[in-house]
């Protein structure tokens, strides 16, 4: 058995090496004499020599040794005494009386050698069963009281315990009917388990007293050295508890009624921090799990009586982790832990333990204890949310005290309800010191643990103390936890049924919606924060066919200052984007996308209730400011449109207008710096209104008109203008049937006007081609005019590659208009002239050799084949010019 349990360095004394060498050399020399005496059957001489060997443990050299060096000498002495024991045992087997030797060794003049010899002879006396074992054991344990020197007495009693541990009856042997086997191995036959327990408890009590005296019998300057030496000897004392565990076996009544009470009384009464910490941890580790559960209340009450300064983290984490592992081992074990109400015991006794230790138990150790307790609560009874909330309440109460606040409950935690901090509105000083890095890590670990265990936003919302504990963290940690909470919503099962629950959720995820650290109310430390805009750049626009031809230098973002179009919002966005790294912006985007998904947690089975929830959600999202709204609000708008479609399917026509109106209002809240996004959403609302039938035509017209207003007032970048016009023209064509003639005519002419005013010829051509396909026979003139303007814009392009591609677009548009019966494009050879221009360009040498020319030629041939296959439709076309 090693002397120390790791982590403790041996103490160093002056000249210890020399004294150690002297002692071991003396033992070896005398051991040779002892062996010769035993070999020649001179027992009386052997006893005297053995006394001299044992006397080395009280010599002047041994007195200068540290416990570790003394232990080495002790092992040498014990090895020689074992030889004497074996010789006497062999004599006893041949019938020699042991009593004579037992009495003879008591004539040894020196106390320490006499008692070592007495234990050696007593061991044979008990094993030979020539005397009542109970009397011998009682005699030995009382005689050992003759040595009161702490170190010598401790090793003497350790020798007594070591010599007798395999000769004591234990409960397991008695229960299994192994009395005969016990006799064969030399175990006590005439005694009881109770006698063995009494012996071990008495010896343990005396050893613990000697162990404690080692430190108290020294000067303050030697205190640190003695602490190290005591720690080196702790296993000698703890071995008695292991022996008691073997004696008790599976007899819970014996353990509860006799053993545990005596051990706990000794731990409390010794009033020594080192002894209390080590022995309490031994109790937590040695006895069976079922015993720990059955007597947990007594153990925790003992913990509440320990001396201030005891490292309670070691003790409590040890017992909690052991019960957690037991609870997780099987379903039966979990039921056992549940039936024992283990967590209720922790919840009721833990505040008293913490209060007893006061500031001597630092916040870091407390959080480590609560982290283990959280693991136990989640393993044993995961469905009991109040247990988890109580652990969070423990953390909150201690943080509130250690970081400078005032807690409304002086004694800590209420055993039934979650703990809440008083609100800032009560006028108290709510300033707190910042958590250390380690304390913050532990607090985050506690919160993360339950998020991983629950995997449900609805479950976490039942925890009142979650958001209170979260507010002690830094903003970055708050934000990360809020994001993890939303990521735990697997499948996004609706769990929000009323505005109160929604408001509560936003307290939990407030760090994602605000740019500052938030308190327990979900409010920012600094109200009225001006949020920043980001991620908008202006790029020079060219037709998509020509992107491969444009030098890369022309594709870069507009440098600082006013972008193309003269707006200032985009310039601000460029400046803001420079303050954030790519990783930070990506993280921000991901976080806001999680917030946007909150709409899927809202229960929309009842339309009216869903609309009310959406209205509350909109108000919460708007707190994020213009930096977040463009990311978070679109999902709410699209969810509203889905709700409108469902209302139509359920024939709830009266609600449709309210839902569409709500969606339109949400679009109007998108910041002007994201006008293109707002325009897209506006068109979505118009398209949804168009799918609902003629009765929603007003929403269609209003949203299309609003899209044109957004285009005219807020979209200034050329590329965005082109994209916006494309979207509006396509949407106008899709919603045409939902508009009356006058409304459609007004909007279509507006589209043609903007297409004609596009910045580049390529843009004009592409947009006018789209406009031409809007019109029917009644507006044939407008269709023909759009085709003609598109052709002129294409011809005006200077670049030959650009010109041929655009002319192909014009030709295909003319064919589509003609086939639709809108107007005749073969008149005056309009189509033939256009195709002739294409053919002339493709006939050039450069066009035949370039990849772009080959692409254009292939498209042209496909178009010609189509025209020839539809010759009846294009009767007026001069095919000779193709």
Can you characterise this structure?
This protein has 882 residues and is mainly α. Among the domains are: 1-245, no CATH class; 760-882, Serine Threonine Protein Phosphatase 5, Tetratricopeptide repeat. Helix content is 67%, strand content 0%. It is built from 43 helices and no strands. Helix 2 crosses helix 6 (111-128) and helix 5 (98-104) runs antiparallel to helix 6 (111-128). The N and C termini lie far apart (104 Å). 45% of the residues are buried. The model is unreliable at 6-11, 172-189, 406-429 and 526-578 (pLDDT under 50). Belongs to the VPS35 family. Residues 1-26 are annotated as: Disordered. It is found in: Membrane. This is Vacuolar protein sorting-associated protein 35. Pfam families: Vps35.
Keywords:
882 residues, mainly alpha, Serine Threonine Protein Phosphatase 5, Tetratricopeptide repeat, 43 helices, 67% helix, transport
Shape category: elongated
Strand residues, percent: under 5%
- Please tell me how large the radius of gyration is: 45 Å
Fraction of residues in helices?
A: 55-70%
Distance between the termini: 104 Å
Largest sheet: none
Distinct helical segment count: 43
Number of strands: 0
**Uncertain runs:** 6-11, 172-189, 406-429, 526-578
Class based on secondary structure composition and strand pairing: mainly alpha
Q: Give the averaged pLDDT, no decimals.
A: 83
Summarize the structure.
The protein is mostly helical and 882 residues long. Helix 21 runs antiparallel to helix 22.
């Amino acid at each position: 058995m090693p002397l120390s349990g790791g982590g403790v360095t041996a103490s160093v004394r002056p000249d210890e090496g020399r004294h150690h060498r002297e002692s071991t050399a003396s033992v070896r020399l005398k051991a040779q004499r002892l062996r010769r005496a035993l070999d020649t059957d001179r027992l009386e001489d052997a006893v005297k020599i053995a006394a001299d060997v044992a006397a080395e443990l009280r010599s002047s050299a041994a007195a200068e040794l540290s416990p570790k060096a003394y232990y080495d000498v002790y092992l040498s002495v014990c090895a020689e005494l074992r030889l004497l024991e074996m010789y006497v045992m062999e004599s006893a087997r041949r019938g020699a009386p042991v009593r004579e030797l037992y009495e003879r060794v008591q004539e040894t003049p020196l106390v320490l050698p006499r008692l070592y010899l007495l234990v050696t002879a007593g061991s044979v006396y008990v094993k030979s069963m020539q005397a009542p074992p109970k009397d011998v054991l009682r005699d030995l344990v009382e005689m050992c009281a003759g040595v009161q020197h702490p170190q010598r007495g401790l090793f003497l009693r350790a020798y007594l315990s070591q010599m007798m541990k395999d000769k004591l009856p234990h409960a397991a042997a008695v229960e299994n009917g192994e009395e005969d086997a016990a006799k064969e191995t030399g175990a006590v036959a005439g005694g009881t388990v109770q006698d063995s327990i009494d012996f071990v408890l008495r010896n343990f009590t005396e050893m613990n007293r000697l162990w404690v005296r080692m430190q108290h019998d020294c000067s303050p300057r030697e205190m640190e050295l003695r602490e190290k030496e005591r720690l080196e000897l702790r296993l000698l004392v703890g071995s008695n508890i292991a022996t008691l565990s073997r004696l008790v076996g599976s007899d819970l009544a014996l353990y509860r009624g006799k053993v545990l009470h005596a051990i706990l009384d000794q731990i409390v009464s010794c009033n020594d921090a080192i002894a209390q910490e080590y022995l309490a941890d031994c109790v937590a580790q040695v006895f069976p799990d079922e015993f720990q559960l059955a007597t947990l209340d007594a153990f925790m009450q003992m913990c509440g009586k320990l001396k201030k300064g005891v490292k309670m983290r070691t003790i409590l984490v040890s017992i909690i982790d052991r019960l957690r592992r037991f609870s997780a081992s099987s379903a039966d074990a979990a039921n056992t832990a549940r039936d024992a109400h283990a967590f209720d015991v922790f919840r009721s006794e833990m505040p008293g333990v913490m209060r007893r230790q006061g500031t001597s138990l630092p916040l870091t150790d407390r959080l480590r204890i609560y982290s283990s307790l959280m693991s136990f609560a989640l393993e044993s009874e995961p469905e009991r949310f109040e247990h988890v909330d109580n652990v969070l309440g423990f953390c909150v109460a201690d943080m509130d005290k250690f970081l400078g606040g005032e807690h409304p409950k002086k004694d800590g935690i209420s055993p039934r309800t979650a703990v809440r901090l008083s609100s800032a509105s009560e006028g108290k000083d709510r300033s707190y010191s910042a958590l250390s890095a380690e304390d913050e890590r532990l607090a985050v670990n506690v919160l993360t643990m339950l998020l991983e265990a629950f995997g449900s936003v609805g479950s976490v919302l039942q925890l009142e103390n979650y958001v209170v504990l979260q507010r002690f963290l830094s903003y970055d940690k708050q934000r990360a936890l809020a994001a993890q909470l939303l990521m735990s919503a697997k499948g996004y099962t609706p769990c929000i049924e009323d505005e109160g629950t929604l408001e509560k959720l936003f307290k939990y995820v407030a760090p994602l919606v605000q740019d500052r650290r938030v308190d327990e109310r979900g409010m920012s430390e600094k109200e009225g924060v001006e949020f920043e805009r980001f991620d908008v750049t202006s790029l020079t626009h060219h037709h998509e066919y020509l992107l491969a031809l444009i030098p890369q230098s022309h594709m870069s973002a507009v440098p600082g200052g006013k972008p193309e179009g003269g707006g200032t919002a985009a310039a601000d966005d460029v400046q803001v984007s420079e303050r954030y790294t790519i990783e930070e912006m990506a993280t921000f985007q991901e976080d806001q996308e999680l917030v946007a998904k909150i709409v899927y947690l809202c229960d929309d089975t009842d339309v009216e209730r869903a609309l009310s929830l959406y209205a509350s959600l909109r108000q919460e999202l708007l707190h994020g400011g213009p930096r977040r709204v463009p990311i978070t609000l679109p999902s709410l708008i699209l969810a509203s449109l889905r709700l409108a479609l469902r209302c139509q399917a359920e024939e709830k026509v009266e609600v449709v207008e309210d839902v569409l109106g709500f969606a339109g209002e949400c679009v109007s809240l998108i910041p002007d710096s994201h006008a293109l996004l707002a325009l897209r959403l506006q068109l979505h609302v118009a398209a949804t209104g168009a799918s609902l039938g003629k009765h929603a035509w007003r929403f269609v017209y209003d949203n299309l008109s609003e899209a044109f207003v957004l285009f005219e007032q807020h979209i200034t970048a050329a590329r965005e203008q082109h994209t916006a016009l494309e979207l509006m023209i396509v949407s106008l064509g899709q919603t045409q049937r939902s508009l009356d003639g006058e409304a459609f005519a007004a909007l279509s002419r507006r589209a043609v006007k903007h297409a004609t005013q596009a910045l580049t010829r390529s843009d004009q051509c592409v947009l006018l081609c789209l406009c031409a396909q809007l019109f029917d026979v009644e507006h044939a003139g407008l269709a023909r005019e759009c085709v003609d303007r598109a052709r002129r814009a294409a011809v005006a392009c200077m670049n030959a590659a650009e010109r041929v591609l655009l002319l192909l677009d014009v030709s295909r548009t003319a064919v589509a208009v003609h086939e639709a019966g809108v107007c005749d494009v073969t008149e005056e050879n309009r189509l033939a002239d256009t195709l002739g221009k294409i053919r002339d360009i493709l006939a050039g040498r450069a066009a035949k050799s370039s990849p772009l020319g080959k692409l254009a030629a292939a498209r042209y041939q496909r178009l010609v084949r189509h025209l020839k296959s539809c010759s009846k439709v294009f009767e007026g076309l001069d095919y000779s010019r193709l």
